[in-house]
Design brief:
Elements lengths: L10 E3 L2 E3 L3 E3 L8 H8 L5 E8 H5 L3 H6 L10 E5 L3 H13 L5 E6 L4 H4 L11 H15 L4 E6 L1 E3 L2 E2 L1 H11 L3 E5 L13 H10 L5 E4 L5 H11 L3 E4 L9 H9 L10 H18 L4 H8 L3 H4 L7 H7 L5 H8 L43 H5 L9
Parallel strand pairs: 3-4, 3-12, 4-5, 5-6, 6-7, 7-10, 10-11, 11-12
Antiparallel strand pairs: 1-2, 8-9
Helix pairs in contact: 1-11, 4-6, 6-7, 9-10, 11-12, 11-15
Length: about 375
């Protein structure tokens, strides 16, 4: 990969200056404090929390309060909120700001999960443009000097695109940036992201940064997205699963340096073990809980490496750090980076499907009174986008 022509560049989100124009996409069950800390150890960027529902936050549920807690080393502190009711979203933002719990707040309008969209939430919500505008405006006002950003998808499907109108509305409401996952809700994570939509959004939203999301599996992909679309930065989700060192690659690439991590099996094992340690701390010393959490990462970390099926299966059932250490000790840590076998897409892509929506949702861009109960039920703890 040659990056010598790429000028040094960072990213400004309101008053926040980020050394590298890279944002970690919020992912449910993944981007907790432990994983964010691990990624920070490899490179610069803006590391966003798991999605928190505004209703749960206002009600101060124990889980939501734990998820908004940042480690002392985390700065800036970035939290993503999901909400469908303007007053509740504004109340949640007011709480975060008044109690000094966040330096940046992102609003999620990209979730494609059926149990959310079927009630009009997530990536279905911008179709009701008045509701979208009201939520964003109320959040920005409540946040004061704390920057608010928006993450969204192209729309519901190819016949019901919302991203340009929503982008203009968000810009008019005073957001600090707009991020676009260049797929529709109907595409889920299948096929290829439509980077041309990012370019069109960048040409439409001109006063604040526009970030691109979708199919960034390497630093070279990130540079190509910026070059092809003119976007101001990138949002990385599935590409970093089991590869926290990708943020080092990205930071170097945006500095114009030729640097690409090619970890040995031992270096991968060390990162995996470090992730588990941080999870133990995140779960307040509950080692069994941390071990259950790390299991889902096994396939991602060891993708392409010569790790036998029996060892993989045992790691995916690990119950303690000692058990993990014993299993990792059986590996040949000197095994070199396997190249292409460890590269490329990771995580489940799903397949295109007809979005689940409230009855008659698409008949009008206005919010009918009958849908308000549906929206109240849409505040579920799911992530995506």
């Amino acid at each position: 990969m040659s990056t010598t022509t790429m000028p040094t560049r960072g990213l400004s989100i309101g008053p926040i200056d980020v050394a590298s124009p890279v944002v970690l996409a919020p992912m449910a069950g993944i981007t907790n404090t432990a994983y964010r800390r691990l990624c920070r150890e490899y490179g610069a960027g803006l590391y966003v929390s798991e999605m928190i529902t505004s209703r749960a936050l206002v009600e101060r549920t124990p889980e939501s309060m734990r998820l908004i807690t940042h480690h002392a080393s985390e700065t800036p502190r970035s939290i993503q909120l999901y909400g469908v009711e303007p007053n509740t979203v504004a109340e949640a933002v007011t709480m975060l700001v008044a109690e000094d719990r966040a330096d940046h707040i992102d609003l999620n309008f990209g979730c494609p999960v059926p149990k959310v969209t079927r009630r009009g939430g997530g990536s279905a919500l911008p179709w009701k443009i008045g509701l979208f505008r009201d939520i964003v405006e109320r959040a920005v006002r409540a946040a004061g000097d704390v920057p608010v950003t928006v993450k969204m998808r192209k729309g519901i499907d190819g016949d019901h695109l919302t991203y340009l109108e929503a982008g203009r509305a968000a810009e008019g409401a005073g957001v600090a940036s707009v991020a676009l996952h260049a797929r529709t809700a109907s595409e889920f994570y299948s096929g290829h992201a439509d980077w041309s939509a990012i370019e069109t959004l960048k040409q439409t939203v001109t006063s604040v940064p526009v970030l691109g999301n979708g199919d960034i599996w390497s630093a070279a992909d990130a540079l190509r997205m910026v070059d092809e679309t003119g976007c101001d930065g990138v949002v990385v989700g599935r590409g970093c699963l089991g590869r926290p060192w990708l943020f080092g690659d990205l930071a170097a690439a945006f500095r114009g340096e030729e640097l690409k991590a090619e970890p040995t099996l031992g270096e991968v094992a060390t990162a995996f073990r470090r992730h588990a340690e941080l999870l133990v701390e995140f779960y307040d010393g509950d080692e069994p809980h941390a071990c259950r959490d790390i299991r889902k990462h096994v396939a991602w970390y060891f993708k392409g490496y010569p790790v036998g099926g029996d060892v993989r299966a045992s790691l995916a059932a690990v119950e303690s750090l000692q058990m993990m250490d014993d299993l990792l000790a059986t590996l040949d840590w000197a095994q070199p980076y396997p190249g292409e076998a460890a590269e490329g897409p990771r995580g489940r892509a799903g397949s295109p499907k007809k979005p689940s929506l409230p009855d008659r949702w698409l008949e009008s861009r206005d919010l009918d009174e009958a849908f308000k109960a549906e929206l109240a039920a849409a505040e579920l703890h799911h992530s995506g986008g």
